[in-house]
Design brief:
Length: about 500
């Protein structure tokens, strides 16, 4: 079990290095720390009251036993202090579960996300209450008071009633612990089935499996078997003790470290997987940022050159207007002039964008950004635009300029995809949903789609599925950078020849 503690702490360090900014990662670390603290007290209790045997035929037996002796001899605490520390570890674990539940609740869609319903307040109170009750009920002082009260009862029948009552409370505490651990997972799956949660399916599945695996270990060790606090010991010794026997079963010394290692390995894989599946892993993010820096330095010269060309076109168009007489030609040249002005403005904005991205967030209605973008992007008449604004207004902290440019890029991509497909079904669907913590925004088109092998490269600078003549491949890399600067997530799903959908999650507070 000493090896189990070491494995858990190493896993925590890996998670910190991997993604310390992710709140779910921090909550998993909090859970592992709480479990490690409680297992540490079990090791200390074993050293005091039982025999800990590791079969010599296990390859790591000597390491496990040496670690067990080192931990046991260095940290020496009285039994009452060990029990308090054990309860503290369990309290920390339950606290992390509570924060998971709070976070999930903020991701549920609501007709009015700004209003906290009474049932939510009751739910929060219940979630906060149980860890406090657990810590108090299994405190050494509580055991002593339970024992004294039993001794003060002179009638054997009254003592039996008191014993049965405390035993029932202990059983109820275990049952509530099971419900407490299952609740966040059930909550996620229930709202996902009802399509009432602003989570990507990969995120939801990954979090559910990770929570389920960790909670299984936790419940098995501390609420079942020999390490569960025995209510009978309270009536005999006035102290909460584990159901330790003279020799600790070999399972805890041999198989448990291996099981813990593989379970934590699965959790690490899932956490990396769900974050890399179109939401981008940390190493990929760093690679993209590096490419973006290279893009910025090279593209600046390209854009300046194009700006000079457009300026020349403008001068030539003005000269042609002054020297030309027919009205039709004059109108055409006016259009060239207008196109030149617009293109110069677009390039000027692009020059500003490739500087270090600095967002200035204020509280806006996200739908205003969409409507502003729709006014800027000319959607052809043959394309049917559908708006699904489920909840309005949807206020959020974001940079209006950059977010509008993001939507412009996505709409332009959808229009190009539809025009390239020559499909009779020309639709663009815009969807907005909200929870108290997140905004869900998607744009779906019935265009040509994107091949699966290209989806992994879609956010890379210079990469594009369009013609290179009119496209430099910086649109989606810019979109990605803006969304990430708002601490959001983005993913793209596509089926060639049928559709493409871009989905974005944005936190409502930055």
């Amino acid at each position: 079990m000493a090896l189990t503690i070491i494995i858990m702490m190493l896993f925590s360090v890996i998670l910190v290095i991997r993604d310390y900014k992710n709140k779910y990662t921090l909550l998993f670390i909090l859970m592992i720390i709480g479990m490690s603290i409680s297992i540490f007290t079990i090791v200390m209790e074993i050293y005091r009251s039982s025999n800990y045997l590791v079969p010599s035929n296990f390859i790591y037996s000597s390491i496990e036993y040496k670690m067990f002796l080192i931990i046991s001899k260095i940290f020496k605490l009285p039994l009452s202090s060990l029990l308090i520390v054990r309860n503290l570890g369990i309290f920390i674990y339950l606290l992390a579960i509570m924060f998971f539940a709070f976070s999930f609740n903020r991701s549920v869609k609501s007709s009015n996300p700004n209003v906290k319903h009474v049932k939510h307040i009751i739910k929060y109170i219940a979630l906060i209450t149980y860890p406090i009750l657990y810590f108090c009920f299994y405190h050494p002082d509580s055991a002593y008071r339970i024992y004294l009260f039993m001794q003060s009862l002179k009638d054997n029948g009254q003592q039996a009633v008191w014993v049965n009552f405390i035993t029932a409370v202990d059983f109820i505490m275990v049952c509530i612990a099971f419900i407490y651990l299952v609740y966040p997972i059930g909550f996620l799956l229930k709202n996902y089935i009802k399509n009432q949660i602003t989570f990507f399916s990969e995120q939801l599945l990954g979090l559910s499996i990770c929570l389920g695996l960790l909670n299984t270990i936790f419940f098995f060790v501390f609420f079942t078997g020999i390490f569960k606090t025995s209510v009978n010991s309270v009536f005999k010794t006035a102290f909460w003790q584990s159901k330790l026997i003279s020799v600790v079963p070999r399972f805890y010394a041999t198989l448990m470290p291996v099981m813990t290692f593989f379970i934590l390995l699965i959790i690490l894989y899932i956490l990396i997987r769900y974050k890399s599946n179109n939401i981008m892993a940390g190493f990929k993010e760093r690679a993209i940022k590096k490419n973006l820096n290279m893009l910025n330095s090279n593209l600046k010269d390209v854009l300046h050159s194009n700006k000079n060309i457009m300026f020349t076109m403008k001068i030539l168009a003005e000269e042609a207007i002054n020297g030309y007489g027919t009205k039709a030609s004059l109108d055409t040249l006016h259009k060239i002039l207008e196109l030149s002005d617009n293109h110069m403005n677009a390039i000027s904005k692009a020059l500003d964008n490739i500087k270090e991205l600095k967002v200035k967030t204020l509280n806006y209605n996200f739908i205003d950004a969409i409507e502003s973008s729709l006014k800027e992007v000319a959607i052809p008449d043959h394309i049917i635009l559908a708006r699904h604004y489920n909840y309005t207004p949807v206020n959020c902290n974001f940079d209006m300029y950059h977010m509008t440019q993001v939507i412009n890029n996505l709409l332009s991509n959808s229009i190009d995809a539809i025009n390239s497909s020559h499909s009779e079904r020309a639709y663009i669907d815009i969807t907005v949903d909200a929870s108290s913590g997140w905004i869900y925004f998607s744009i779906k088109d019935t265009g040509c789609g994107i091949p699966k092998k290209m989806l992994k490269k879609i956010f890379s600078p210079y990469f594009s599925t369009k013609s290179k003549q009119n496209n430099w491949g910086i649109g989606l890399s810019y979109v990605y950078r803006v969304i990430k600067s708002h601490f959001g997530h983005i993913r793209i799903k596509s089926k060639p020849g049928e559709f493409t959908i871009v989905e974005i999650l944005l936190p409502r507070e930055i």
